[in-house]
Amino acid sequence: MSLIKQLWIAIIALLLLSFIGSLAISITTSRDYIEQEVRIKNEDNATALALSMSQLDKDLVTLELLIAAQFDTGYYRQITLRDTDDTVLIERSAEEYSGDVPAWFRQLVEFDVPSGIATIQDGWRQYGTLELESQHSFAYSSLWRSMLELAAWFLLAGVISLAIATVIVRGIKHPLSRVVTQAQDISARRFTTIKEPRTLELRQVTQAMNVLSANVHQMLSHESHKLDELRRHLQHDRVTGALNRDVFMGKLSSQLSSEDARATGMLIMVRVQALETLNEQLGYAATDQLLSTLVTQLGQLDTAWAEPMIGRLNGSDFIFMLPLMDDVEELRIQVMATLAEVAATQPDVEIYLPTAIVPYAPHDERGTLLATLDDALAQAESLTSFEQVVVRQRKRISLYSSHAEWRNALESAILVGPELAYFPVVDAQGDIIHYECPARLLLGGNWQTAGVFIPWITRFDMEPALDLAVVKKALTNLQTDLKPVGINLSAASITNTQFVNELRTLLVAHPLLAKQLCFEVPATLSTHAIGSLRGLCTALRPLGCTFGIEHVGAEFTKLADLHDVGLAYLKMDSSLIHQLHASNEQQTIVRGMATLCHSLGIQVIGEGVADDEEIACLFRVGVDGATGPGVRHA
């Protein structure tokens, strides 16, 4: 039995005890008082009547008239005159008054009042005995009305008391419920904190659990930062902070083979010309500072991602991947301004920074892109002006020629409804964890992958409409094939209140199907989006939905901010998994990330697994699941 129920039982029992006790005392006291008053009345009336009769002639007719007059003027049950032989000479009696008093009540109280007895004298001798009994039946009615009035008052007082008790119990229940919820969250490895209640005992418990949650948050922050430092030490150039060549190439291959929005954008290659000469003129320290400034300034061109994807291919060549960028001319102007700022940091020497810009698209060949960049960079080096930026336009076939056509086509495609592709996510035993379900839209007469339309969806702020259509399609498919599916939700959707409300309404209407849905959000979440994710998880978790984060790489440091969300799984970016079996450094990073996630009860899944060697190594370092082109499921 819950504490609240026990508290209610105690309150009700106390009220009933008070009512019954007060009623019993009131009835008993009134009964004793009435018995005493009636006994005194009997004695006084009997004595007065006997005295009057003693002074009269002892004529039975006269005595009978006196008794009749006395009987008719007062409330009496019986008046009896007996002689010295106990023979009844005169007797007057009346029926007992019952009124509307229940029989059980009369039996319960039942007055025990002795009759008033007095002696009648005839001169110096005794004439007889007078016995008088007053009519006390009316006292039952009076006592019954008093009991009803007392019960009504107690009922009113009870209602008022229960109303006050409700407020008090509610004041106790709310903080208690919060404490219970926090305890349940901690048992589920969601380390939440709550406001401390005013109740001393609950406040002490809450303080202890809040300290626990704060310690876990601190531990996660510390460990995730240590892992991030290790990752930077192993994957980044120590001078400039740019990615090492192999790491960048792995990320580039991963992006080109993916189907998300990052598979479209621009590649920028910058060469610091005559680096050895600059070392002689500026010194190694100043030259290193120049290279670091170049990487920092280029990174500021990317405002969409937490960590810009810049690699150092060799001593003087840097490559920058800028997803979602499609305006070549605007980018060229920005790059020129950035290079001018970098060159201005060393006004005493001539700094030449030839640059090549090439757009990329899903499924482009990495080798072809790099060859195009090298060719454009060679052309840039041949230019004599300081503005050594060459844009190598590549012939790209667009489904539609204008923004208006793209918008109309996307609106029509969303209205028709998307199709879902199914890619298995398996555990070490080969069993299905869930299916990844990226969306396909009917554009240009064919079902197009996300890499084609997501940049335009983002540009037109149509993510909530698309995500809701995908969820509806998933629910429709689940009605015929009940298997868990993973649905991508954009950051724009989870921060959209209307989308969250419509999504919850949709899932409430399909409670059994909602339990098969796994919602995945991108790792590049802002602080505002993380707060919205908490609200979304709180709203949908009671329906049985699970939540995960996809494409986790450099953003792993945000895990500490998500310790109270209650994530079910985390998907490592394919750049961390690529050639995992061949890199001890990557294995160390992935193993540390998996260990830290497991401490929070979060499953870890590797994305973009390409072959059996990567799968075997993935499970060997402690990852729970795998997905990608190398994953096959019968």
UniProtKB/TrEMBL annotation:
Entries under InterPro entries matching the protein: Cyclic-di-GMP_PDE-like, EAL_dom, EAL_sf, GGDEF_dom, HAMP_dom, LapD_MoxY_N, LapD_MoxY_peri_C, Nucleotide_cyclase
List each copy of the HAMP domain by range: 170-221
Domain GGDEF residues, every copy: 263-394
Ranges of residues in domain EAL: 399-634
Q: Membrane-crossing residues?
A: 7-27, 150-169
**Pfam families in the record:** EAL (PF00563), GGDEF (PF00990), LapD_MoxY_N (PF16448)
The UniProt entry, under PROSITE patterns, shows: EAL, GGDEF, HAMP
Q: Does the keyword Transmembrane apply?
A: yes
The UniProt keywords, alphabetically, are: Membrane, Transmembrane, Transmembrane helix
- The positions making up the signal sequence are none
- Please verify whether the record's keywords include Transcription: no
Gene3D superfamilies (UniProt xref): 3.30.110.200, 3.30.70.270, EAL domain, LapD/MoxY periplasmic domain
What's the protein called, per UniProt? EAL domain-containing protein
Provenance organism = Halomonas alkaliantarctica
